């Protein structure tokens, strides 16, 4: 891509043109990944909550709300990589059996995985749309004469004698 972009740049401005090209590329990477990350974060917060509410119906009544609240806290404050399953740390009410605690951990894992996949699918539309827009813009670029045409005085070259 750099070769194509720099092919017809005059030597006296090649350094500046290369700098502009690299700056644009880096800026595109930063903005693109930031936008995709923001979309993913927003969708993930929504999907985690809806998945947690749906999964909580299979839990005993005394642990349903803490389960849902654990995911609400993760969406608000960010997920922490820790010993807790999927970064969700939830205080269990006293007297919860080991079997229920294991079920909660398994459900928390499933809620996170499914919520992430649900959020990732629409997030992928962002970079695909950006690439599609770039492709359409490439079609709008006016084609110039090739170097051979210019050197040979080919198509599109007018001389003073043609003006008369």
Number of helices: 7
Helix content: over 70%
Find the count of extended strands (DSSP E, 2+ residues). 0
Rg, Cα atoms, Å: 28 Å
Shape designation = rod-shaped
What proportion strand?
under 5%
Q: In sequence order, what are the helices and strands, one letter per element? A: HHHHHHH
Structural class: mainly alpha
Stretches with pLDDT under 50, minimum 5 residues: none
Largest sheet: none
Whole-number tally of structural domains: 1
Describe this structure in words.
By secondary structure, this protein is an all-alpha fold. The chain has one domain. The protein is built from 7 helices and no strands. The protein is rod-shaped and about 90 Å long.
Short description:
The protein has 7 helices and no strands. It has helices spanning 2-6, 14-56, 61-77, 98-123, 125-140, 147-152, 160-163.
What labels describe this entry?
164 residues; mainly alpha; 71% helix; 0% strand
Please specify the SSE layout and strand pairing.
Blueprint (H helix, E strand, L loop, with lengths): L1 H5 L7 H43 L4 H17 L20 H26 L1 H16 L6 H6 L7 H4 L1
